[in-house]
User: Which sequence fits this backbone?
């Protein structure tokens, strides 16, 4: 694998250049919330974050997205799609969030049906990851084969070491970008930094507070849809606010609806939806296959721990810990995993 | 259309005919404005489409017509909400959007050489009507044995596809049509009673036969034990499910039963398959 070195002092120059040549999407701080936005230069970026409040999945599956404009008069239909995706760089995404994007790929780039909106952005975007330098108390990426310095899914992975970034070149797309800015991406000193990165990864691996053990959990869920466990306290205390699904980097559910703008025109939009809402599965005739929070909570955790694996052979959770941090009633997927492991052991 | 990246874009269709089935059910016959779309559509009995009613959004509706009947599609739509309400106000000549076809289809290849016993309740004759007409088409009639249709509705006014039941299907070779309404009515000379008990009365033999059932959950619940009692095996009983859907492409998430999406892995399931899935539908 190729590697490069970027001086930290040159990062503003790199970001300014990227913002000029691409749509540059990077972490920004708005009031107290860290999220990803298109920025116009290094001055807008906020890199002193552990992880963003909102994941960068919106780069590829925006919270609201117009799929087309229509003009409909009753006896004529005209459909106009928005312009295709611009060349973009996603800078500063954490390894867990990048891994999450790889779990969305098989959903949107399906065998039978693709998705021009997702794929257009995906193909035109270079993902530059940024290794973690700290581990939060809610982090558990290691449980899902991830790690604070794991480059899976990134085109380039930056790891901060002293006054330098060690840059792993993971794809041809990444290499092309590094080569295009060769005055910033040098090769000098990469070997030593590679060793330093290994050290950092080892050090961070020892800093996880949360012990999460998935042993036996999938097998338990494979054979038991109706577990008494799902009648427990966690299901009862869920408020159905949907926060977990919005902050989750692997949640991909969406709604499609029309937004009429008058004079026979309108837009068809898709926006994030949440399986925690009763309307999500409510049919026009009144029947609801998941009528109470019990079924909805079960479905969410079954999706993360079983369904996504069954369907795509990929984990449905990357251990970013956002749902643990943001849940207003402290429903904690790591507790649920450990509880289920216990149920499996006692079965 | 394999790996179609533009799958979310509907094609314009024009309404060529509207039949009032009941006071709140209409059948719309539509043709694609671009005839090439129909040529390549390749819909199979049991599949569904997403209908675009611009300004209201989209809804999943089964294709009621068999592909053997011509270069058009029929959708039978009950007025239950905003979108279907707007649709019910539409007139011949007006347009809406269609994308599809989606989902799997009735196993008509496996059904070759067999008798087919259809059971429909309410307006849920719509999703199985495509297979009835496919099996009764000139082209494929010889592939199938006797075709029986047992259909029930609450009242005479609630019976859909009256001309199919009373005129078109009974006249065709080797068919039997049984129609019932829930409660007696003065002008009604036919059978009175619920679907499950009528099935018991007609007592189809399970030999060399498939039962294809569609109807409201309560009807299905009481009809399945009747077929079991008659000796039908779980893989001889085929049904089609309904779920809320938004994309119909296996992406928007909501129509899952366990790891399966009804929109791409269904809507057609055998009872044997359903018994291996979570009871969450």
Assistant:
């Amino acid at each position: 694998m190729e590697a490069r070195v970027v001086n930290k002092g040159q990062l503003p120059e790199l970001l300014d250049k990227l913002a000029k040549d691409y749509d540059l999407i990077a972490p920004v701080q708005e009031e107290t919330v860290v999220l990803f936005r298109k920025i116009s230069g290094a001055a807008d970026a906020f890199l002193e974050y552990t992880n963003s409040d909102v994941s960068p999945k919106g780069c590829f599956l925006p919270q609201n997205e117009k799929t087309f404009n229509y003009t409909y008069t009753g006896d004529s239909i005209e459909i106009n799609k928005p312009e295709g995706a611009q060349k973009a760089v996603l800078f500063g995404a954490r390894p867990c969030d990048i891994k999450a994007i790889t779990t969305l790929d098989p959903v949107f780039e399906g065998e039978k049906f693709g998705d021009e909106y997702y794929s257009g952005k995906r193909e035109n975007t270079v993902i530059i990851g940024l290794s973690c330098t700290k581990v939060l108390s809610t982090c558990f990426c290691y449980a899902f084969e991830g790690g604070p310095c794991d480059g899976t899914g990134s085109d380039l992975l930056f790891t901060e070491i002293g006054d330098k970034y060690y840059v792993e070149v993971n794809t041809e797309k990444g290499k092309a970008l590094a080569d295009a800015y060769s005055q910033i991406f040098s090769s000098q000193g990469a070997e030593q930094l590679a060793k330093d990165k290994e050290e950092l990864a080892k050090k961070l691996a020892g800093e996880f507070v949360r012990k999460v053990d998935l042993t036996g959990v999938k097998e338990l869920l494979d054979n038991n849809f109706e577990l008494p466990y799902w009648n427990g306290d966690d299901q009862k205390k869920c408020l159905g606010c949907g926060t977990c699904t919005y902050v989750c980097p692997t949640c991909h559910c969406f709604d499609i609806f029309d937004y009429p703008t008058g004079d026979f025109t309108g837009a068809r939009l898709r926006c994030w939806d949440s399986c925690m809402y009763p309307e999500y599965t409510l049919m026009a005739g009144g029947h609801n296959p998941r009528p109470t929070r019990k079924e909805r909570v079960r479905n969410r955790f079954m999706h993360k721990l079983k369904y996504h694996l069954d369907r795509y052979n990929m984990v449905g959770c990357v251990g970013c810990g956002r749902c643990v941090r943001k849940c207003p009633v402290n429903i904690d997927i790591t507790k649920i995993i450990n509880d289920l492991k216990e149920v499996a052991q006692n079965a | 259309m394999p790996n179609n990246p533009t799958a979310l874009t509907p094609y314009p269709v024009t309404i060529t005919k509207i039949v009032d089935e009941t006071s709140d059910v209409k059948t719309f016959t539509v043709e694609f404005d671009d005839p090439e779309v129909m040529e390549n559509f390749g819909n199979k009995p049991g599949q569904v489409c997403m209908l675009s009613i611009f300004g209201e959004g989209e809804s999943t509706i089964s294709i009621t017509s068999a592909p053997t009947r011509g270069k058009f599609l029929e959708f039978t739509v009950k007025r239950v909400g905003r979108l279907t309400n707007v649709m019910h106000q539409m007139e011949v000549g007006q347009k809406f959007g269609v994308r599809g076809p989606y989902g799997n289809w009735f196993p008509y290849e496996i059904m070759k050489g067999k008798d087919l016993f259809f059971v429909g309740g309410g307006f849920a004759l719509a999703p199985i009507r495509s297979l009835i007409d496919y099996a009764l088409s000139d082209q494929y009639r010889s592939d199938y044995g006797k075709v029986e249709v047992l259909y029930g509705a609450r009242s005479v006014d609630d019976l859909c596809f009256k001309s199919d039941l009373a005129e078109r299907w009974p006249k065709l070779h080797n068919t039997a049509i049984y129609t019932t309404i829930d409660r007696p009515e003065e002008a009604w000379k036919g059978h009175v009673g619920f679907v499950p008990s009528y099935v018991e009365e007609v007592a189809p033999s399970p030999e060399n036969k498939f039962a294809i059932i569609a109807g409201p959950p309560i009807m299905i619940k009481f009809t399945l034990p009747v077929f079991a009692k008659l000796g039908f095996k779980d893989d001889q009983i085929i049904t089609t499910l309904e779920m809320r859907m938004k994309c119909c492409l296996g992406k928007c998430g909501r129509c899952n039963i366990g790891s399966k999406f009804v929109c791409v892995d269904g809507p057609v399931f055998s009872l044997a398959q359903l018994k291996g899935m979570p009871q969450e539908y």
Notes: The mean pLDDT of chain B is 95.
